[in-house]
Protein 1
Amino acid sequence: MRKILTKLSKRVGALAVISALVASSLNFVGCDSASASENGTKKIVVGIASATEDMAYYNEAGELDGFEYQLLVAIDDLLDDYTFEYNTSDFSNILIQLDTNAIDIGVHQFEYSDARAAKYVYGTEGYLEYNTYLIVPTDSEYTSIEDLAGKVYGGYQNDATTAVIEKYNEENPDKALVIDYAGSLSSEILVESFLQGVWDVRHGTQRTVDKYNAEYGNGEEIFKIIGDVLNSTEAYLLYPSGTDEEFVAEVDEAIRTLKSNGTLKKLSEEYLGGDYIPDLD
């Protein structure tokens, strides 16, 4: 069972609703007592994006959709003791909500990083391959990170791959890239800005390159990968510090079931255009 909580700030009594969500989640899986839904199951508040193309967005019918949303729906369907509710937000606010226990699960293609693992609880079963590379326009002469000294790299705050570039800059000050911490952008604006030279380089997955070339290249390849893998990991669900290990294990087992029965592969092909699901651990 699922419920979507959206645009809370526009509703009458919004502050009261938000306060209630915070209070209920503080008493849930990360703490000693559980919050009950109307049907007697345990309520799980999921922090999820609403404007991330292919992953979590509102479709033409005004309904939340996308690969990550449907992943959580499928997990919810397998866990009879829980009811998932969805609180839409952006990347940075999902992390803030995890910090304050305002949500019980965060989902936003979270790669593994040691810094993040020190603050939150990671699920152990990855649901999406996430090997990231440097990406440049096809007509670029750059071939590796060593060619990019002084060039502008478009990264993100609190991002695992951007952290790799930050570490590279620290270790190679004479070859450092200039990091522009861009906010969340639509694919169309990002591609247009990239091609116009706002950034010399960005990072992404092979799936990112395939998507941009297919949707914006007019039959041509407009972006390419250079160099070696920057960060080889998978995307995981993220939980507040102190979350009950048994609950995390139940969700991990549900993800394994969805891998083994082909559900995740089907969702990946439907929403992402190919099979980007990692093998069973």
Protein 2
Amino acid sequence: MKAGWTLDDIAWDDLAYDKVDPEIVKLIKAAALVEHNGADYTEYLCNVFSDDPDFQAAARKWGREEIQHGQALAQWAMKVDPSFDFDDAFQRFLDGFRPDVGASESIRGSRSGELVARCIVETGTSSFYSAIAEATDEPVLQQICRAIAADEFRHYKLFYDALRRYLDIEGLGRLGRLKVAIGRINETEDDELSYAYYAANLHGKEEYDRERCHRLYMAPVYKNYRRQHMDKAVAMIAKASGIRLYEPVRKTVASVMLNRIHRQADKFEAVREQTQAA
């Protein structure tokens, strides 16, 4: 779909219920909660960039698109699983996880650092939705995920263009940018994704266990990544970090990272099997 798509552009009548993967449904439910929380992150970014009205306007547009991503994913999830109450799940998510939107300065130490972190987030989301679009056989979910992935690639450019402008002002060096990038990558193990998975799939069935929910979420995510997704992700991370990787090096790094997450997926899969057996 073209940029600026709406929910009405989605071919809902093409939904193929017999091609729905239950494990992917769980991921989509969790992703819908995280995406729909765009308002909190918009408020945070507008506070951090309080004297930059142009960036604030771009951030608000970004936030509206993130919320729409959540709406599209939620609508698909509720169609394939009518028992899923998105509004209740979203409220549970907000009750259990809420970012500090009142901060007036970036938690990354500078505006440049904040923009590096945002680039890393968009790298992760664009690769996630690209991988899901290729992993699923359900045509409507394919359409949704491709549209979201395209948005996330554009969002990366939005934040990267702003980063270039702020680098001229603040002068954050490559080492500082790399530290922020690595730190943000490691935050995939924090409570946001884990609690989203719990709020969407496990609330009322068991107590929240962050590590367990992290593994339940990441096992199917990691196993769906392919070489092309990792090649692109490595290139985007390097660009945001200010590191130039020549193709042979980039491909080697991507291969190492892909092998690593596939090994992790195998380990995490054992947790899912234990859950199913319980």
